[in-house]
Specification:
Helix content is about 75%, strand content about 0%. By secondary structure, the chain is mostly helical. It is elongated.
Amino acid sequence: MALFRQMQLEGIAPDRRMFVALGNAAAAARDLEQGRVIHRCAQESGYCRDSQLATAILNMYGKCGDIRSARVVFDAIAAPGVVAWTALISARSESREISPGSSEGAIHLFRSMQLQGVAPNAVTFLAALSNCNDLRLGIWIHSLYDDSRSRTGIELEEIDVVVGTALVAMYGRVGSLSSASSVFLVMPEKNTVTWNTMIAAYAQNGHHKEALGVYWRMLLDGQHRPSKVTFLGVFQACQSPQFLVHGRSIHSQSTEKGLSHDTAVATTIVSMYGKCGNLDGAREVFAGIQNRDSACWTAMIGACADNGDSASSVMLFRKMEHEGNPVRKVTLVALLNACAADSSFLEVGRALHKRVVVLGAISDTLVANALLSMYGKSGKLKQAWEIFLAISSSVAWDSSAMLVTWNTLIAAFAVHSDPASTLELFQMMLLEGIGADGRTFMGMLDGCTHTGRVEQGCYYFGLMRDHWIVPEKEHYGCLADLLGRAGWLLEAEEFIKKMPASVVDDFKWMSLLGACKMHGDVSRAERAAKQAVQLNSRNSAAAYVALSSVYVANSTKLHRP
């Protein structure tokens, strides 16, 4: 670029090849102003009819986010080839943040390219796959890629690795993990990015066990060392108490590789320990972070909120602001969740609500739903309803976001209102065209557990099958707990016995054991303890301690059916 300025000062006109190089340099530097100067000079020199130069200028506009100028340059090319088409598709990809909806535009361009009879190359497929968020479209692009390879005989391993990794990423984004895994397994060669992508695909879709399995296989494979991105993905997979042992082990591994002090990695570790219920571990890691940013503070605030320490969440938030860290929307969500967890902090939540309005963050999906959740859990149904109305009147909300909103509102009414109102809301949701999911019913079942409404809980559980929703562990556990707490011990025991093998575990029987203590049913408690030990012998001590407490509580009055 400096040479170009010098040539301008000396009145020397660049040739075609120099203009191509200058266009590529402006693209690499994301220098739109200088790129426009180069484009204008090329036009004045009469070189813009050259397809190679036009493509370079098109690419420059795309890299700089000026999609309109890129389209004008593309339309001026007499017979655009694969390179020009690819540059335009990539331009739409580059402008995703600047031009909402450009993801769909990139796929539309890819389809238009097919209609024009221009065969895509590997780079085209990469651009299309990176913009694909629909399973059917993804399968179509995948089939085109396979056809392209069979026609041209492309067997280069590096192309297989790059496009294969893009396919894994695409299938992961759309939730087709079986397809992602199939592509991953047949790839002849994998690099670190490929392994990271497969780990992230599983982790982001909640398949934590599978994500950890890929990580351990990566280590056993021995050809690629875990990177910073690897640890970011695998720590996300450890965010559940059952995977705490794995999380601690991987934490040690990241420390050995000198990555645990990286702010981004350490932030993920804080979040992992918080989600696993190890608040002391989260605090220890947080205390060791030298350069704390907003994400780091937010993770610690969230960890305290997740573990019922709302007071610490509020204190950390104030300290975060005092140290000059910017408050982001995700921080507000974490703090609102802390206020939702403890009704004594409702006034703090109200103050946050005013701040959210001032900041203009009320239109954000996560923030608005966090406000709704806070008022709902506090039993402030009027305010929750007002937030809901504000959300539902916004045209910017999609159906998936509205489902979260409806679920939050229904869960609040299930706990703090009457069954008729809850069912009415449920019917209203369906009439709005929002289909229920497992969380919808979990909220209603949980509400019945809090209020002891057994008949209503059984009705909701049966209603799930009418909506083609298969009950999961949590639904079975919630109904079993509801039956036991209400003293329906025979029904609870029979319900647990009839559960599918995939969902029954020692926790269900331990729940019944606790209910037996509450209602003085010793013989049933003995059977529950026996079943719990059979399912998990490692937890036998807890079962026997619980059974002993039943004996003590009912030492003067044994109840046998």
